[in-house]
TrEMBL record:
This is Small ribosomal subunit protein mS23. Belongs to the mitochondrion-specific ribosomal protein mS23 family. It is found in: Mitochondrion. Keywords: Mitochondrion, Ribonucleoprotein, Ribosomal protein. GO terms for cellular component: mitochondrial small ribosomal subunit. The keyword Transit peptide does not apply. One of its GO terms (molecular function) is structural constituent of ribosome.
Amino acid sequence: MATKRIASKVHKQASRLLREGYIQREPAWYRAVLDHPPLPLPAREPPSRSPFDAPLNVPLTRPAESKKIQPLKVQYVEDEVRRQFFRDHPFEAFRQRSLVEGAAVESEHPIRGAEWTRLRQRGRNPTSEDAIRYAVNLYEHHGMDLSSAYASAVAQFRSLRSELQTARAVALTEAEHLGMEFGPSQVEITFAKEEKAFNTFRESAAESQAAETERKRWKAVVEREGPPEQWTRGQEYTRLWKEGVRPVYAPVFVEPEIKPEGLASPEQEAQRVATSADYMNLIQARRGTPTRSR
């Protein structure tokens, strides 16, 4: 009776009772427990594993002397073959493939198992997944070790791919010889789209520059005569102001006048206007008062 209290022994006890005829009908839970038995003691120990999804060359049970309790990694044979295949053929990952399923999931190919002896049985243009499944099929159904199965699958895959490329090259040469003209390739179409986008950027930059030029059309441009003066950070202007020398802007606004005593020189007229505090008569003009001559 003690064994019935242990969860891992219940289905075994039920099996013995059924075998001896003490139980006439199987309990409703019997088959489910046989398919998925409870964990053995101790309860933390992982259940037994089948070699279907376990790593290769790894024991499926924990050694008795091992004190480390952890489940085994889930790893399929296809994972190892696929990893090695794309390591040897990295450019196969760039081939376009449709990942969208139709109304129903595609059924398994009829040629499989012991009947699948050559990769060409599934077509002259095999995919990378066909080569991987063929290698696994040789390993599981034809008694070959994994290295030999992979080498055979890769050799047949490369042979079929070479035949296909040779056939396409010959067909292209024959078509061009007969006068067939082909349109641009996908690479050329992509380059044309990139060039069109670059031209759009150039046109927009030219339009922006033209608009900026239009906005700056009426900007004053001062043309200086002679070499540019050295910038003194305003120190020269401050020194002249302290010495009583006033800046002279009169030659820009004053025109020479003809008087009875003669034509005054521009320097004299500029000096006379510069001595006035309001040589442009701006203060009186703003106040609306008439200008008085001194």
